[in-house]
Write a structure and sequence with these properties.
mainly alpha, 5 helices
Length: 139
Amino acid sequence: MIEKLKDKFDITFIKFILVGIVNTLVGTAVMFLAYNLFHLSYWISSAANYVIGSICSYFLNKYFTFQNKDRSPVIIIKFIINITICYLIAYGGAQKLILLLLSDFSKQWQDNIAMICGMGLFVILNYFGQRFFAFKKKD
């Protein structure tokens, strides 16, 4: 069991985290500025984060992290499907959970905390989705 987990969290995972740090810095700034400065909605602000971050993520993860040489447009479609599903699960789930747990907090606090929780959940889901679906190595 431990050996199987080690296979999943290898140098590829470390590269994914490094790419994620770059994406997170840029995307998080966009998301919180959109929500707190421009007063855009929770969904528009968090989506802006992932539109911008996903473009960067696609190229860095495809070529640097997973070293995928596939030129098929199918890979882009798989990447978009993965990002979309991970985003909806992570942010939808985080928002519902935080609304339930922090019902006494203001909406702004709830949304900001939900966005942070959604980011964490997104990273985990997205790693597995990219590694084993979007950029899966052909046997």
